[in-house]
Fold this sequence. Notes:
Keywords: Fatty acid metabolism, Ligase, Lipid metabolism. By secondary structure, the protein is α/β, with parallel strands linked by helices.
Amino acid sequence: MxxxxxxxxxxxxxxxxxxxxxxxxxxxxxxxxxxxxAIVDRDRRFSYGEYHARAxxxxxxxxxxxxxxxxxxxxxxxxxxxxxxxxxxVPAAGAVLNTINTRLDVDTVAHIFGHGEAKVALVxxxxxxxxxxxxxxxxxxxxxxxxxxxxxxxxxxxxxxxEYEEFLSGGDPxxxxxxxxxxxxxxxxxxxxxxxxxxxxxxxxxxxxxxHTLGLGLDWGLNRDTVYLTIVPLFHCNNWVHTWSxxxxxxxxxCCRDITAKAIYDAIxxxxxxxxxxxxxxxxxxxxxxxxxxxxxxxVVNVYTAGAPPPAATLAAIEPLGFAVTQMYGLTETxxxxxxxxxxxxxxxxxxxERYAIKARTGVAQVMEEHVTVMDADTMREVPADGETIGxxxxxxxxxxKGYLKNPEATEEAFRGGYFHxxxxxxxxxxxxxxxxxxxxDIIISGGENVSSVEVEGALMHHPAVSLCAVVAKPDETWGxxxxxxxxxKEGAEATENELIAFARDRLAGxxxxxxxxxxELPKTSTGKIQKFELRxxxxxx
Length: 542
């Protein structure tokens, strides 16, 4: 050990140890290049100096409204300026950001408001009815609503709540940001549906988000010329942490409220978008765009895709259009993607069919994660890299959640054996690349959103004619997967497919509603357990 035995005088001090936080990125950008274009939201354009000042006003206004460090501030917003500003202004006030999926149903939003104990909620006028209905469902006091109007999108202010710009006007642009004293302090709270009807609250730390932002810059080659389009919802793993990343390199963020092929092509052609992320449904949208919606551009657009493995055919169709696509893998619990199908030069000359089959692999660990592998969940030993032995994808490193809010049992189980158990089943190729073969827990991924089969089954079981039901994923050209329900009716009872779909739609978010209902006797084991693998075979034949 030599002199390392005595480290007297080598302790941490304010000079050599600062808590890691993504907040540092915007503060630095505003100081170093205040005039650089930071963010674009349709006809609104702000420099880094202005972006920082607006985030500061939000932080100040939240404090004045009674939000204390450690409190939760929720948002129900699409990918607009206010949602991006909340990613800075909320933690700058010392609060925890809780971005809520705008596609959720009233009951789930009410649960999230209550479970997260939000003090304030920033709500787009288009989703005001959802938030207000959720407040009425709550037993205790819910969050104060600040309404974010967007008249240009057909969502004018209702007049029932303080409007966002008015709220900001009362804030101080020189507000002294609350920087974390400990990088393990909570930064964000994201709810994931998992396998039960009630979502679990995934807690992010400042440290994890900061390290993810730096890893993204290294793996994706971001720089000051980067123009990033927010297609991944900012309520989805905080936009895979991308929006916190762009100021680190001084790039530009372009907001995209409505995800359409025309909006994407316009942003690429008019703003010079160079990077974006999105589920495979977005790739299909671009491939199948109408001629009138397409625009010409003279640069390559770098795309991260995740949410479900993209078909090789989709990759083959989109790349000639000017898009370089890389498949990613991750979960809400890992701050978004932590695995990428990193390309090797020796694959360049392979026949197209082989190249796109390789691109459809899940991939290898990104730089921000310590270890991603496939293990036998019982023995916690790695499976051989033989291209066929399956196991569960396991993850460990700095970019893994702190845990599930108010659920220590679920946290302990998820971290059993020193790894995060993803619940996804895969094998390893001889070169170490992971390939997902199935999803444990029967999660359906529709348009990049997780759908719990258990939750859909629970909704259908409330229908008086339904005796038994099981829900599995049905492949879909538009959404990747959609829920398909197999139903046994009670003796003598009658119901139609349309009737059950409408019944489910009244109780579930639209993307969770089954798109097909098939009446049949369900295959079961001798103990009565439904054999979903048999149902998947039937779906494949549809």
